[in-house]
Amino acid sequence: RQEKPGFEAGLDPAPMWEAPYYRGSGKLADKIALVTGGDSGIGRAVAVLFAREGADVAFSHLSEEEIDARVTQQAIEQEGRRCLVLQGDVSDRDTCQQHAEMVAQMFGRIDILVNNAAFQVHRTDFADLSPAQFELTLRTNLFGYFYMAQAVLPFMPHGGAIVNTGSVTGLRGSSELVDYSMTKGGIHAFTRALSGNLLDRGIRVNAVAPGPVWTPLNPSDRPAEEVARFGAKSRMGRPAQPEELAPAYVFLASAQCSSYISGEILPVIGGY
Ligand code: NAD
């Protein structure tokens, strides 16, 4: 089990999109996508794979430092697609509206929104969970998704797709992440409810629910045994690499692949 790619590597693997393992085939040809939280982890892998499938990609990030964002931007541009980098806090409604307007200004419209930016802090004791942390988790993970979905609507006149990042914690709950699990369950319900609401606009709404994925969301100073324990929750005995999640987003974003699918939660959890 430990020889599977990415297990021991979990720590510092070469990004899979640098290897020729995934060839795009135009599933998102000439689409315009906006991905939140694209300077890292799953969001970066999704943004780059979307470009490989033919989309122009805007992505947002929280950090005021641009180093990580530049890595994503370069990878998108290497695919020959246009890229727009947006900085700001998605829990702020005005920021979401500005971001959507900037994408529409540059590309003319928006076809795909990936709501992906999120916040979590591990807390073993529920009693210690401070109101400030609770509020920050809710604001980023719930308000952010809600505001961003509303903000893109005026720029999706021809229909499109929204893909939300949920989580296995929203399906099963995590005792260390009570507030976070609560928001992820909320995102799944939001996905199902919004799907019915937006179908007559031609917008499909689905979610990907990742299991354990090795990204900066998990503290990088974690000892190897802890990585192993984290990954062992999956039957594959290892955490996923972010690039293993991204094809699920392509599938749900592309009308070629999923034109008759809306309101679904797709678990990508390695047999968790
Ligand atoms: P990550 O830390 O690599 O990326 C998080 C991204 O969110 C960053 O790009 C950051 O800039 C952005 N972000 C955070 N707060 C923000 C805010 N207020 N405004 C704007 N951007 C903000 O983490 P990741 O693991 O790639 O997480 C991506 C998504 O996957 C999240 O929704 C997370 O809940 C979900 N998820 C992750 C795992 C996992 O094990 N890593 C498991 C299930 C679900």
UniProtKB/TrEMBL annotation:
The protein's name: SDR family oxidoreductase
Family assignment from sequence similarity: Belongs to the short-chain dehydrogenases/reductases (SDR) family.
UniProt keyword annotations, A-Z: Oxidoreductase
Keyword Glycoprotein set for record: no
Annotated organism of origin: Albidovulum marisflavi
NCBIfam families tied to this protein: PRK06701.1 (NF005214)
Coiled-coil segments: none
PANTHER family: NADPH-DEPENDENT ALDEHYDE REDUCTASE 1, CHLOROPLASTIC, NADPH-DEPENDENT ALDEHYDE REDUCTASE-LIKE PROTEIN, CHLOROPLASTIC-RELATED
Domain of life: Bacteria
